[in-house]
Amino acid sequence: MKRHPLDTFLSRVEKPARYTGNELNMCVKDPQNVAIRFAFCFPDVYEVAMSHLGMRILYHVLNAREDVYCERVFAPWPDMETLMREKNAPLFSLETYSPLRDFDIVGFTLQYEMSYSNVLNMLELGNVPLRASDRGEDMPLVLAGGPCAFNPEPLAPFLDAVLLGDGEESAVALCRVWERTRGLPKEDRLLAVANEVPGAYVPAFYQAEYNEDGTIKRVIPTRGDVPERIKKAMVKDLDAAPFPERIIVPYMGIVHDRVTLELFRGCTRGCRFCQAGYIYRPVRERTLNTLKRQARESLAATGYEEISLSSLSSGDYPELGELIGHLVGEYSQEGVSVALPSLRIDSFLRGYAEQMQRVRKTGLTFAPEAGSQRLRDVINKGVTEEDLIRSVTDAFENGWNHVKLYFMIGLPTETEDDLNAIGALAERVVESYFGVAKERRARGLTVHVSASTFVPKPFSAFQWEAQDSLATIEQKQRHLQGRLRRKFVTFNWHDPRTSVLEACFARGDRRLAAVLEHAHALGCRFDGWNEYFDYDAWMEAFSRAGLDPGFYGTRVRPLREVFPYDHLDAGVSKDFLMRERERAYAATVTPDCRKGCRGCGLEEVCR
After folding, report:
1. CB neighbours (10 Å) of residue 150?
2. What pLDDT is recorded for position 115?
3. Could you tell me where the DSSP H helices lie in 435-495?
4. How does DSSP assign 342-384, residue by residue?
5. Interacting residues of 451 by C-beta distance below 8 A, sequence separation 6+
6. pLDDT tens per residue, range 282-326
7. Mind listing the pLDDT tens digit for each residue in 516-527?
């Protein structure tokens, strides 16, 4: 193993274990004996990155190949960045401490728009020119994937390629093409990527034309030998897809320090604000036997004491009760607990509660999203207040006393009555606790109410909507603070200024690349962290670029306006999303498509 480039200085940083590597189950290869060196870059701090299931999966998939070595590169915390700049040390991987520039492929996962400044900062720290047009033939291929890659346009000038959709197969295909074309001019190699890799989009081969009012006229290829539309890659048989049992075990606490089982991918519920519910369609499930095996092998290889059952709507897994029963029966005596990170309020069953609390009780999280039934129908949540009260009452009767309720403010058609309904719903939850007999309920009730700000997302039924202005969001938060000032209830909210920027970049176009460059020059990084977010710097960046944030965030889009990402295909048709928007304004619920096809555009794939 190479000597750490900063080993004599690590004592000067807050958490040295973020940078040392050598964790249990880390992949070790000789870089000289592989054809492709792949840097998996997560533009956030170690604790967040190491918790991400997608990174765990792709790290495993790529390293299963003898000809590929996938190494991890994460954003250094500001104390470490200062040290690196002081010592002129380039950003390095955790496996071999190799500089970012030494890799063949540098792949970023885009999970959150507020991580974009970290992408630029990591490239700079790695001595990789920011813009793709400035990178020569000897430079790595800079790649992006993840949910935000479905609109990569704000980052497009910095990216050589983008992978849309599931990465298990497309990442491997990309490595094959990049090795096979070694020695050819970079443009020829990128052309091969665009035509041979599932879900691959090469931004340099496309250009946007604009109308006089600043909206997009069209996005077209600049050459005739690339696809006009790029379809997402999709793993059809998730049960047969590779899954990591020997996950890396960090030497420090991380956000989700546990084994995670992915029950299924996709969602059929159709919440109209939820981008993930549309871009990950159709639902593909893992069988019960596969999940049992993955749990057994993962626990044996890691020593973790918690299993999290993860999916967009885990309560919809048809064999959930049997799976929980098996996991509790097999592993509870070893001190292993089972957790469902969040639950639909209509899918929490008493039997699950009785089994899950056998080892240890954690807090339960429910997501009503809206306070009133009218607004829940608008967003197609498909649950009622009585569903919630029944679920939390079941939980209280089974010994839970900590409940989290997630809501969203600023949703289309929202009124003051809808906001007041959030407070009324929280009060009913408290009342349901005291409605349980004393001998059956645990002492010390806490009800945490969290309110995030609605952000219109690409490929959702609300992608045409305007976000509330910053002043309106702040007024609504103050209103809720007063309404939720109750015993046993705590109210938390997200900084609405980050939501303003998130909305800009979620549906933004390539012109925002200039904003990103200015923000980077002004020192913006870790914008998802309150202690480092600098709203004034971002507003200065917009001013320098000559762009108006309101144009991107608080403007209603006409139904026929061209989006910056209309040349990318997530599978769900635009006509279907328009119909869902119409149903939203009529407060009409669209039933779960497991109960009948709704014609979203993926009918043939679902058969």
Report:
1. 24
2. 97
3. 470-483
4. -B-TTS--HHHHHHHTTT----EEEEEESSSHHHHHHTT----
5. 407, 408, 409, 422, 477, 480, 491, 492, 493, 494
6. 999 999 999 999 999 999 999 999 999 999 888 889 999 899 999
7. 999 999 999 999
182-236 residue pLDDT tens: 999 999 999 999 999 999 999 999 999 999 999 999 999 999 999 999 999 999 9
Cα 75–chain centre separation: 17
- Burial of 167: CB neighbours in 10 Å, binned 0-12, 13-18, 19+: buried
402-409 and 446-453 strand pairing: parallel
Is residue 65 within 8 A of residue 172, CB to CB? The reply is yes
**Long-range CB pairs of 253-258, under 8 A, 24+ apart, other chains included:** 253/47, 254/46, 254/47, 254/48, 254/50, 254/51, 255/47, 255/48, 255/51, 256/51, 256/308, 257/51, 257/304, 257/306, 258/304, 258/305, 258/306, 258/307, 258/308, 258/339
| Euclidean distance between CA atoms 587 and 414, whole angstroms | 12
The type of residue at 9 is F
Structure token digits, residue 588: 């009409």
Whether the Cβ atoms of residue 601 and residue 573 lie closer than 8 Å to each other: yes
Q: What percent of the chain has pLDDT over 70?
A: 96
Residue 124 phi/psi, 5-degree rounding, is: -65, -45
Distance CA 369, CA 367 (A): 5
Q: Give residue-wise pLDDT tens across range 464-486.
A: 999 999 999 999 999 999 999 98
